[in-house]
Amino acid sequence: MSSRAAQTIAALRRGHDEFVGRLAALGPDDIVRTSGGAQDWTVAQVVSHLGSGAVISKASLDAAIAGDDNPGMEFNKEVWARWDGMTPAEQVAAFPAVNEELVAAYEALDGQALEQLRIDVGFMPQPLDVAGHAGMRLTEFALHGWDVAVTFDPTAAVPRDAAVLLVDTIGPLLRFAGKADQIDGAVTVAVRATVPDRDLGLVIDDVVELTDVPPAAEAKIIAPTEYLVRLFSGRHGAEHTPESVKVTGSLTLDDLRRVFPGY
């Protein structure tokens, strides 16, 4: 079986190719529509966010490969300002090349680098390995890719290969993004992910965290893996919730939506 880093890079490649194809089919009116998933942004602004993120991610990767320091916040601000200054058409047109450069840079890493390279992203207490760095990008890319896709297809889903990886990547974020105070008392939830099948636990107490399968639980949720990723990241509107999602016990799906307002 390939390493988690290699699996993540492969998911980024497939996602890139699909997303670029989707962008190529959009017209001038499409790209200024309000995003179906990130409703404070237009489609072009979502693409701009992904484009600037690609540039910044590649800069931190390049610095690690060269043995240099992270370029720093001033560099990031310059990148954001440059993309913010583009027209919607320019933002969409510029995206494919910069994201291709990032994905290709990951793909060029050899086996030793995949295991040993450490990347300073500038805002984490410790440098990340390649799996962690690429995983952060996959989280951003897959979720914002869905924000664009759902604008034109209300049944859009996070790609399966990305969703399988993102369940674990998103897990640590829930301690900061989950709002445990939105329900009364502590609750343990048995989580049954489907497509593919997997069992885990969710504890809502002083903080929110994913755990191993609980021996006992007050509530249970059964949902496709891709929907769990969207639920945890706040992309859980009723109009985009599959009929197969079931919540039983002491919680409702609306309770879980309050716990996960998005970030």
TrEMBL record:
Molecular function per GO: isomerase activity
Coiled-coil ranges (or none): none
InterPro entries linked: DinB/YfiT-like, Maleyloyr_isom, MDMPI_metal-binding
Domain Mycothiol-dependent maleylpyruvate isomerase metal-binding: 12-149
Keywords from the named record: Isomerase
UniProt-recorded name of the protein: Maleylpyruvate isomerase family mycothiol-dependent enzyme
Keyword Isomerase: yes
Superkingdom as given in the UniProt entry: Bacteria
